[in-house]
Model the fold of this input.
Amino acid sequence: MTRTRFNAFCGGLPAAEHVVQWGNADVWKVGGKVFAIGGWNEGQDAFTFKVTPLAYEVLRDQPGIRPAPYLASRGMTWLQVHDDPGLPDAELEAHLRASYDMALKRLTKKARIALGLET
Done:
């Protein structure tokens, strides 16, 4: 996946917000909660996202995937696709969507309503 496609996918999710921070990383949030990060790999494209504990156990040692720097070392279940083969684009998009959904669930109902994501 290219960084352009990553940003287009994340930007297409409802109420997704984009900021550039942490050394020129593309950081995607919903309701102020981070769900994806593009960058953070010594100048090369890398894509970081939250996963379930089961997905973390299954994927963390796959070629091209690693526990996300900074986040996983703090006990969080975040992974980073940083090299080939990593994940096929469709599978990466499914994980990005799942990360978005996890962030969305952490918002209050009032916040989801304010974002137009719930009635």
